[in-house]
Amino acid sequence: MRLVLVGPPGAGKGTQAEFIAAHLSVPKISTGDIFRSNVTQGTPLGVEAKRYMDAGELVPDEVTINMVRDRLAEPDASEGFLLDGFPRTTPQAAALDKLLADLGTALDLVLELVVDDDEVIRRLSGRRTCRGCGKIWHVEFDATTRPDVCDRCGAELFQRDDDKPETIATRLREYGEKTAPLVDYYGAQGKLVGIDATGPVEDVTTRAIDALRSYG
Ligand code: AP5
Ligand code: ZN
């Protein structure tokens, strides 16, 4: 299955992507994770992306599209994938459609995680991420036994640089201006399914998997 997860920053895309990708046995491809790993390694791509990420702005389309094209060419993505955080602009969506059409295939479904701005701010301001295994935690909603230590692998947790209040505000603005139009784009293709992303993580996963079942 070829699937896209769309939703505002902090909607729970990364959290849900892990479960949904495992359920479908497809790779989870997160552009945010790929950029962050390039930033950590200090690659030229990471140096360029960091400027935008720290400001809460989107990395330019051309850079992002080329990166995704390379990732989708890897063998593990040939039978299906779950994209988390891409596409995020109409040009990115059009580029993805073209890329898949050239391969003789197409997206199956786009899942939109629906959650309001107040909840997004609560989720992002308490998010902690594991430096070792990448698991996403929350100080209140999904707390570890010891603060700043991952229960799964024992590595240290960190707070993302772009989870500062002023950067969150810019990310929400970018989402409204540049990404929200994708709801109409995929709606017009008949591929969009909206999911209520509030409530416990497991409930959201169940809603997502039920939606896949009814459309798959
Ligand atoms: P990216 O990493 O994609 O960030 P984002 O879209 O802002 O999304 P987040 O990762 O912040 O949130 P999420 O929805 O994954 O939520 P999570 O599961 O962590 O992008 C970062 C930057 O990279 C961008 O700003 C941009 O600069 C660049 N970039 C990336 N892709 C790009 C693209 N295509 N084009 C251009 N630039 C791009 O959950 C959040 C918190 O809530 C966690 O603490 C979690 O534990 C908690 N939580 C989750 N679900 C629940 C629940 N049901 N109840 C309570 N708490 C919950
Ligand atoms: Zn860990």
From TrEMBL:
Domain Adenylate kinase active site lid: from-to ranges: 127-162
GO (cellular component) term, any one: cytoplasm
Residues bound to ATP: 10-15, 127, 199
Region (NMP): 30-59
Keywords linked to the UniProt accession: ATP-binding, Cytoplasm, Kinase, Metal-binding, Nucleotide biosynthesis, Nucleotide-binding, Transferase, Zinc
Annotated Zn(2+) binding sites: 130, 133, 150, 153
InterPro entries, A to Z: Adenyl_kin_sub, Adenylat/UMP-CMP_kin, Adenylat_kinase_CS, Adenylate_kinase_lid-dom, P-loop_NTPase
GO terms (BP aspect): AMP salvage
Localization: Cytoplasm
Subunit structure: Monomer.
Protein name in UniProt: Adenylate kinase
Organism per entry: Micromonospora profundi
